[in-house]
Structures are given as structure tokens and as C-alpha cells.
Amino acid sequence: MNTEKVTARRLTAGEASELGLQDGIFVSAEMSGLPLDCFAPAFLTEPGENFEGKSFRAKTIFGDEIHVLPDNAEERGIWIADKAGEEIEVLRSAGVLLNLALFVPDGSMESLESLYAAARDAFGAGIVQRWSEETVAVPDVKVDLYEEPARGRKNTNNQNRDRRALDIYPTRVRFLEPSDGWRFIVEPHKEIVDDTPTI
What we know:
Blueprint: E1 3-10, H1 13-16, E2 25-28, E3 39-44, E4 56-60, E5 65-68, E6 79-81, E7 86-91, H2 109-123, E8 143-149, E9 162-168, H3 170-173, E10 182-188
């Protein structure tokens, strides 16, 4: 586990209520119920003034959301970097976890093993790991993906649509997220035919 010493001080609930979304803080590094005896860099999920005496919600840089009562002595509290403070142990990000979906035309187990071996050669045998693997036969078809307002009226013309991506495979759709207030519309791919007369 990679950690570093950081000089910081613990905030009271009153001080935490003055924090904004951009203020870097440190909270308990507990991950999915796994207790870790150190802190993690984090940010509040909404401005501190919005919490009004309730527990503060913070999201760590590792994606875990935790609830904190700063004035509760039994909790780790909320900390902020301060040269006049005390040393705390902070969990440092050591890398990036990639969730990959690979489309392998005419894929076979041999080709998948070759991809895995190449990744291990590039990053190191102890670095690249396969946590879960799902092999799915994918039809060689394409779809058009559109976004439209989530509360749009039915049977309206296409002027509200925002073409987000073209020529994608259906399995990719589940790895994409629509913009706030929009939803995805997936249609069979239509080749664009240019009917402009030529001489």
C-alpha cells in the first residue's frame, strides 16, 4: 500500500460547512467496508453550507462515497492540508484501474491470450491482472446512437436530437452514459447515401 505523510488539521463542522466543491480534503480511506488505517484525498459531493448539521458526504478520488460527522470524536473526521497541523498518513493513488471491453473480430481464445500476453509484456507481469472475464459472441452489426431530451415529446421531428456517435457496435452502448437530462436512442445503422447528381 503506497502512502505518504501529509501535514493537516482536523476541521470542525462549522469549518467544514464553509468548504466548496473544489476544496481538497482528506477523509477515512475505508473502501467498501474494508477499514484502512489512513486517509484518502477527497472532495465534498455538494457545498458544505448545504448540509445544515447533517452528516457531510464526501467522495474520495478512488470513487468511494462516505458520510462524515466532523464533530464526532469516534470518527476520523474531515482534514485539510495545513502546515501548522499534524502528520497524517494519506493513501496515494498508485495507478489506474481500466475496465476494458475488447471487440476481437473472429475472436478466438488464442487471440485473447495474445492480447493478454502483450499487455503483460508492456506493463509488467505483476501489474496486468484479469479480474473478471466475459466472452460474448457479438454480431457484426452497427447501430446509430442518438441523444434526445429525457422528457421530450413523442413523435416530434429530429431537430432536438444530438447525434453523439456513429457506426458503433451494440455492445459498446452499455458502456456509455447519456448527458444529464438526456437519454439514448439506438437505431439500426443507416448508411449515408449522397444523392447529389454528378456529371
